[in-house]
Amino acid sequence: MEFSTEILLILFFVGILAGIIDTIAGGGGLITIPALLFAGMPPATALGTNKLQSVFGTFTASLYFIRKKMIKLKDMKLMIIIAFCSSIFGGWALLKIDSSLLIKIVPILLILIGIFFLLSKDIGKVEKHKIVSTVFFTFTFIVIISFYDGFFGPGTGSFFTIAFIYLLGNNILQATAQTKILNFATNLGSLLIFSFLGEIYLWIGLVMGFGQIIGATIGAKLVISKGQKLIRPLVVIISFAMSFKLLFYS
Predict the structure, then answer these.
(1) Angle, alpha carbons 156-30-52 (nearest 5°)
(2) pTM of the shown model
(3) Residue 78 CB contacts under 8 Å (≥ 6 apart), including other chains
């Protein structure tokens, strides 16, 4: 499969835009997957290539948040390992199980998240008490969401963010930063499955990946400088947009 210089440039800039959006609120796949399909890729290869390019963005954002000391990486080691392993099992399950039921359920969950963020103007402004222990959170919610990301994917960032805020009492900046770390782990796990299946177009993934590096850097800086004022409305918009796409264009 050959791609013109124009298509490569378009996909590079798509990577930049997706990196910005994905770092701030998640949902970059809303842009990248349709772009890859439009470029002529088969659906499975588009999904695999999307995972490759998104690894660059989530790694870049994660590294930026670590350097800014928004994350204590040693406190997240277990979460990262569990997220990585769970996403691999999710990818394996994708080969065995029909995902059509999720296409019906996930849009409803995303709409509820969008409404929740829309109505909760003070959500994530300050830290609150934990509702569950970190260990319980890791072996239940991290396992479930990470498995889901390997199996299906849309809305993973929103699910992680709301879980960190509501269950662990994180503020929205902490939740967003930790979400990127786990998104990187789950993307990497899913990437292994798609690599095993040979469903990746390497050069396109690398071109978009360089765009993701630029976009994720911009997005991470915006998260720190704008914080809750920027993240909350974008999460609402992205949640509703993903719901609309899944309901009417899946």
Answers:
(1) 70
(2) 0.87
(3) 135, 138
